Amino acid sequence: MRITAIREISVPLQGNLSNSLVNFAEHTVSLVAIECDVRRQGRPLVGYAFDSIGRYAQPGLLRERFIPRLLAAAPQALLDDSGGAFDPARASAIMMRNEKPGGHGDRAAAVAALELALWDLNAKLRDEPAYLTIARHAGRAVDEASAPVYAAGGYYYDSGDARQRLRQEFQAYRDQGFGKFKMKIGGAPLAEDLSRIEAALTVAGEGANLAVDANGRFDEAAALAYARAMEPYALRWYEEIGDPLDYALNHRVAQAYGGAIATGENLFSLPDVNNLLRFGGMRPGRDILQMDAGLSYGLTEYLKMLAAVEAAGFDRRQLHPHGGHLINLHIAVGLGLGGCEAYPGVFQPFGGYSPQCALGGGRVRPTDAPGFGLEQKPELAGPIAALAAR
């Protein structure tokens, strides 16, 4: 068994929305396909994946370094000991040949896209959904083939009544079956953001159903001012307070704020996560860790992060992967994590789930389609067809 072709394209995100720091109108995502020589129904099996949402595509890194390394590898070097499946860990080691430690950045996402495509391909070789392949690899049984889910939205709009639009947006999510929500803060003055939070709570019902995300905007003074002002709301969590590598700031807010804090989506390696656990003040039993396999070298590295988190006294249910898409849904279900987010109205064509996924009771269930089920998502039909044509 061997890889016969690898293709990649950069797909633009649809829409024009902003958080406290970033406008996503120019953002792109790398979509990749890994084809092998195993055929089903007359066609070669293809593994698809992408590098998650919130960073730019990495076409240069993929074309110049990581795809050529995989294609140049001896076929047996990419297989597991049985020879009947690909070994994502071995593939990752080959992709990282001659790469210096540190400086993770965009290369972590480029490697992740290809590594995750191998997980999709392995699940298709077994003709099973990816969450089962992931669970088996991790030595777990899947007791509940669904995960808790919340709707992420509440961005800053370029016009109109912000409070009214926020209420309408969250009501639409509630009508779809979501019971928990997340909104953006930090892109307006504190008083205005508090007013927006109160508008969101008219739909969410209570603070335990609403998280807020500052997207790394705050310095210490602003972070603590927001913490003091928001504490009476008893929110679900206070996310990405300051720069993701400013562990001292995170620690100081954790000491001052009685509610839960959340971070980790912008940490791309095991050493980064170890530093957060050592120096960031994160509290077992309370705080939330949001590392994203699609931005951090793939599931191989994510499993190492999970082991470190549990060794530090955290429960895996404190992990809620960032990203709001099908790949992280399968990871959350397969590993028994605390839940996942969804982008039901934004970040198309990647955000949210396929129509066949069952949503209800605050949980979402992936389908039984082989792999991650990306082919079932109508919005991805065009990009997948464009990728196949390359």
From TrEMBL:
Keywords: Isomerase, Magnesium, Metal-binding. Its EC number is 5.-.-.-. Its cofactor is Mg(2+). Binds 1 Mg(2+) ion per subunit. The keyword Metal-binding applies. The keyword Metal-binding applies. One of its GO terms (molecular function) is D(-)-tartrate dehydratase activity. Mg(2+) binds at D213, E239, E265. Residues 163-260 form the Mandelate racemase/muconate lactonizing enzyme C-terminal domain. One of its GO terms (biological process) is carbohydrate catabolic process. The active site is at K184 (acceptor), H322 (proton donor/acceptor). InterPro entries: D-tartrate_dehydratase, Enolase-like_C_sf, Enolase-like_N, Enolase_C-like, Mandelate_racemase_C, RHMD-like. This is Mandelate racemase. It comes from Bordetella pseudohinzii.
